[in-house]
Amino acid sequence: MLPPMEATCIWLFPAFAAGAILWAVSCKIFYRIRGEFGKDLVIQRFGQHAFHVVSGDYSSKLIYEEIFRKKVYFKHGVSLHDFDDRQDRQEKERGPCGPLVLDVGGNLGFFSAFVAEHFRGSRIHIFEPLPLLVNAISLNLASYGCVVFRAHDGKTLLRDAPDGTRVVVHQTALGAHETELPLTYQSRMLAGSSLVPERFLPSNIDKIQFLQAMYLDSVTLGALPAFPTRFLCQLLGVPWLRIPIFLALTPLMILHQIQQRLSGNRQLVFRTPVRTLSSILKEQGLLGKTVDLLKVDVEGAEWDVLMGIDEQIWPCLRQLVIEVHDGDDGRVQTIMELCKGKGFKVMKMQEEAFQLPKLCKIFLIFATR
């Protein structure tokens, strides 16, 4: 006779299998009605806001929560509220009166939209390599009343807003050198797009813990039903139950892959130009200008972005917020030491929204002067 817990797992399997199949089929129907997955922009409401997002991209809800609800980029002393107290009033008199913000890894433009909403008259430069996301950024920022100029094709949206926030969108990745590189991305999780996917996970990661985190995050994103996924993941943490639970999860993994395929999820590679931040600042006539905030979120390529900043530009950077994948090389400490050496006060914070960032050692570094 089987122990009660193992008998429960076996009893749950048929119900879970049926639920997963229904979930996969419903996703397929939903995306057919809503639009071709990963290729269409749709308008989605988040609380009081409405944004253009990529159909079926589960990461957009999380990004909105982080930026607009939790305000993760404005912690540990990072702020744009003190702009009027700065001493460079002559510079302010010569040009636009708002802060200068660089958004490296723009995604859907949510961070820049937050800046535009709270700091009217800002000058924002957004860097995003994926064309579909560039289109979403342009639409989202134009809907905020921003003057949006697309540097790669010379198009300007909403020309009749002379006093509004000015946004320049650069369809490019940033790195240490001018080159062209493959960008890997999941059509269902565009926030994970990376030039260096090999840096995403530490090599010594525990496979069972990774499995738990992956499926718990899938529940958070709405890709899997909460029950019985959470229940099985909890049991997976009990050592003597790992083998039977792993066997119970094997069909889940197969069905999850089926659901991913049915809903159009796929890994794609897109070749993108890579520029250095220094070359673009020079091109835009911003050398010597104070950068009030540099935000970097590039999924493992953050060190490369920083290496593309010439020495004479560092004194012009007033605040930095950098998402860092620590990996096996102690990247967090290295970047913190780099910022300290440039005269910044540095703090770090670990993200809380997902399980995988904790397991994969993903941190936010805040550098202020």
Question: What can you tell me about this protein's structure?
Answer:
This protein has 369 residues and is α/β, with parallel strands linked by helices. It has a domain at 41-182 and 269-368: 3-Layer(aba) Sandwich (Rossmann fold), CATH 3.40.50.150. It contains twelve helices and 15 strands. The chain has a nine-stranded mixed β-sheet, with helices on both faces. Helix 6 (207-221) runs antiparallel to helix 7 (226-236) and helix 7 (226-236) packs antiparallel against helix 8.
If helices are DSSP runs of H or I spanning 4 or more residues, what is the number of helices? 12
> What is the CATH-assigned architecture of the domain at 41-182 and 269-368?
3-Layer(aba) Sandwich
Portion of residues in beta strands equals 15-25%
Terminal residue distance = 67 Å
What are the secondary-structure elements, in order, as H or E? HEEHHEHEHEEEEEEHHHEHEHEHEHE
Shape descriptor = globular
Q: Helix fraction? A: 25-40%
**Average pLDDT number:** 82
CATH topology of the domain at 41-182 and 269-368: Rossmann fold
Number of strands: 15
Q: Largest sheet, order of strands side by side? A: 6-5-7-4-3-12-13-15-14
Task: Tell me the structural class.
Answer: alpha/beta
What is the CATH top level name of the domain at 41-182 and 269-368?
Alpha Beta
CATH superfamily of the domain at 41-182 and 269-368: Vaccinia Virus protein VP39
Main beta sheet strand tally, sense and closure: 9 strands, mixed
Query: Radius of gyration in whole Å, from Cα?
Result: 22 Å
Given as residue ranges, the uncertain stretches (5+ residues, pLDDT < 50) are: 28-37, 89-94
Instruction: Work out the oligomeric state of the chains in this entry.
Output: single chain
